[in-house]
Each structure stands twice: as C-alpha cells, then as structure tokens.
Design goal:
Helicase, Ruva Protein, domain 3; two-stranded antiparallel sheet; alpha/beta; Rossmann fold; 15% strand
C-alpha cells in the first residue's frame, strides 16, 4: 500500500468526522471508532446515559455516508417479526416479504437489553452472516450493514442482559461519557442545533475501497504474537471468569489495520493494538462475582494486561 493511499483514507474519514461534528460535539474519538468498525464490517455496542446524542450520532454518521438509517426501540413486547418482517399475501395471492427495519444500512437498536432473549436473537444471523432467513428463504443485507446497539449503564431494572454469544458479535463496545464543559457550552451556542445539516461525503463503493485498502496494511509476526498474548492473558487472570475468544483476536487484527490506515501508516505498530484493546475486549471479558464486588472493573484489568504483556520492538 502506498503512503498516498493512506493519506487519502485519512482525508475521507476526516471528512466524515467533520460532518458529524456539525451536530455532535466532542465525540470525535467515538465517531472515529464507529468508522473503524464500519471499515471492519463490524457492529458497535454503545453504553451511555440518556440524552448524550447516541441516536443523533448514529443518524449523522448514516447521513455522512449516504446510508439508509432506521431506529428500533427495543421494548419487552417487541417481537422478532417486528424487526425482521413478515410474509404477507399480495393482490396476486402470493406470499411476499414485508420487510422489517432490519433491511437498512445502519440500524440503531435502542436499549437492546430491554427486549427478551428471543427478540435479541433475531439479530444474530444478520450480524454474523449479513443475511436474514424468513420462512426458509434467505435475504441478503445491503452493504454496508452495521448494527449500533445502545445500553443504559444505570437503569438495570426490567432488562435482559445480552448473552455472551451475542456480545461477541459486536466488534467494539464504546463508552459515551457526559460532554466536557467546553463541549456543552458549544452546544448551547448553536442557534438551532435541530436544523444543523450533515452532507453525504462518502459513498458505499468508497467504504468498500477503504475496507479493501485496510487489508493491505502490513502486520509483522511480532505484532501478531502481541495480539495473541494480550487475548490469551484475558483467559489466564484469576479475576476473570471468561476471557476473550479467537473472534476477539480477529477483531483486534482488523481494527489495528484500520487504525494504522487512518494514521497514514502502511504497517501496524504496538500503539495501534493498545488503542484498540479497550473497545475490542471490554465486552468480551466476564469478571468473577468476587472481583466485581471488590471494585475491580474490566477496563482496569485490560490496563493491567497491557502493562504486563511485553511490547514488541518493530
């Protein structure tokens, strides 16, 4: 991969970040990580309290990519057919699919843990295989297809925790905090934030080209070993009940490549791996109950792992 290609990739993603910043203040790192997930063909789990622009951010990203966007509010009475669609009889007395909101480019699954496991599982096939099977017929998803799911970290009453198999299908878990004082003041200075516009700056074919470009980023054997050692360490620490799977290693590699691409580099360095460690691992590690009761957090464990695993010299 030529350096010029890396510069072009960075410029294109930066143009998306600039457009989204017209309506969402101070979340550049989160938006960039969502873009990395899109270029990895991955899905994102967003955790944050209500009112910090999770929906607006997802909608703005879809607008900047000229993508179709749909939102589903997950509730206890939501059924799989409400997401996937149902077979209907048309005027010719033939069964046809009445498509559900899953048939889109960017789907916001709002408060995904508000629905029971049967409804949550409706997303498993489309997230992993990019297709939906209804009445033995298979329908491919459009490209790009990404699920952005949200969770409220505080209000847990009446929720259904996502099973490990579904958590593992998200390439990233991102944490959204409250804005800084400066960012919140910037929001207040906007005369009419509701009328702020986001222009499309990246098309589907360009997203595909960037994804293919990321595959050409070089990864040395020491970097592969570094990724493997970090993931393996999650399975060996005494505070952890369940560590990361090999799918985490694959996600690590994809994300590190895209991170290097967006840094104008044709090769991965250890810092790329370190920066991707938290979003890739934090939802794939399950702590023992006694660890949680003692105040240990997943992010703390990841930090300790990064401090102890030897960093390769490249």
């Amino acid at each position: 991969m030529e350096t010029k290609n890396a510069v072009d990739a960075k410029e294109k993603v930066d143009s998306v970040l600039a457009e989204v910043s017209n309506v969402v203040m101070g979340k550049k790192d989160v938006v960039e990580n969502i873009m990395i997930a899109i270029l990895c063909d991955g899905h994102v789990l967003l955790e944050g309290v209500p009112g910090i622009a999770k929906t607006k951010m997802a909608n703005a990203i879809a607008s900047s990519l000229a993508c179709d966007f749909k939102r589903v509010q997950f509730t206890p009475d939501l059924l799989p057919a409400d997401i996937l669609g149902t077979m209907m009889i048309d005027e010719k007395k033939k069964f046809v699919l009445r498509q559900g909101p899953i048939f889109t480019n960017i789907l916001l699954a709002d408060e995904i843990n508000r629905s029971p496991p049967k409804t949550q599982s409706a997303l498993l096939e489309c997230m992993q295989e990019k297709q939906v099977t209804i009445d033995k017929l298979t329908y491919p998803m459009s490209y790009p297809f990404i699920v952005i799911a949200t969770e409220n970290p505080i209000e847990m009453e009446g929720t259904y925790p996502l099973p490990e198999a579904q958590m593992d299908r998200f390439i990233f878990k991102l944490i959204l905090d409250y804005p800084t004082k400066e960012d919140e003041m910037s929001i207040l200075r906007l005369k009419n934030i509701e009328s702020a516009k986001v222009s499309p700056v990246l098309a589907a074919k360009e997203i595909m080209a960037l994804k293919e470009m990321a595959k050409t980023v070089k990864v040395t054997e020491p970097i592969l070993e570094y990724i493997t050692d970090i993931v393996t360490a999650t399975r060996q620490r005494e505070e952890i009940q369940l560590g990361a799977s090999p799918r985490a290693s694959i996600a690590f590699l994809k994300a590190a490549r895209v991170k290097a691409l967006l840094a104008n580099r044709p090769y991965v360095i250890p810092d790329d791996v370190k920066e991707m460690a938290y979003p890739v691992l934090r939802h794939r590690i399950i702590l023992k109950t006694e660890s949680e009761l003692s105040g240990i957090t997943v992010d703390l464990i990841i930090r300790k792992i990064l401090e102890t695993v030897p960093v390769p010299k490249v």
